Amino acid sequence: MIEAGWWEYGQYAVFFILGAVVSLINSIAGGGSSLSLPIMIFLGMPATVANGTNRIGLIIGNISSVANLAKHGYLNTKLFRQLFFPSLAGACIGVFFLVSIGDKMFQAVLAAAICLVVIMSRLRKDILGKPPQTPPARLTLGGAIGFALVSVYGCIVQVGVGFVQIFSLTRYTGLDAIHVNALKNCLTTVFLIVSTTALAYAGKVNWPIAIVMAAGAWLGGYLGSSLQRKKGNRFIENFVSISSVALAIYLIVDLMIH
User: Fold this and answer.
1) pTM score, two decimals?
2) Tens-digit pLDDT profile for the chain (258 aa)?
3) Distance (Å, rounded) from C-alpha 70 to C-alpha 183?
4) End-to-end CA distance of the chain
């Protein structure tokens, strides 16, 4: 990290605010890591350490958001129990999975995938058929495989996984946006804990910065969950669309520059 006079202490205020903003974004939609990781790397943190350090705050922010939403009855615990083991299995696979795709190709695919998710989620006529009226009573084979794969991706890459989770959960459960968000944040925490434990064991976490970001993340997660409770489903849907398109544009521009 940068070590010069006031910055030695001033950086903690910066990382507290960064943790709060990222968790607020992730609580409502996703893509917050596309903001935090470049900033952390720009401020002098090695990329792998930034990745591990960032995830500590993401876990705390998710827990804060879920706790607030669950308190008001928005978390479907039956569905969480149903999808917990596929998510855990995917996370365990993801820890040992080697990514062969190059960084630039991955970035292009991710940007295209996010745009596709946004377009399909906003279509009036659903070309994949309508989501169910009520959530499935038991875990389906497609659901188990699908959410395990989402967890593999989230464990390895993490950036943009919130949008994939939202789309997948909406398709699988038929729940409204705020209930989907509560479930998304809960399931995301599962693979984040697995992947972050591995990164921490490998020494890829700057703990002083991680603790400060986690404090900010708790505030951001709470504010994000409170905001979506007050504003409702239409606000969440619009926020998801805007933030996901912004992430896709950022990835495309970054790809062209580098």
Assistant:
1) 0.83
2) 445 555 667 789 999 999 999 999 999 987 788 788 888 888 888 878 888 899 999 999 999 999 999 999 999 999 999 999 999 999 999 887 744 555 566 556 656 766 766 666 666 555 556 788 889 999 999 999 999 999 988 887 777 788 889 989 999 999 999 999 999 999 999 999 998 998 898 898 999 999 999 999 999 999 999 999 999 888 888 888 788 778 778 777 777 776
3) 9
4) 24
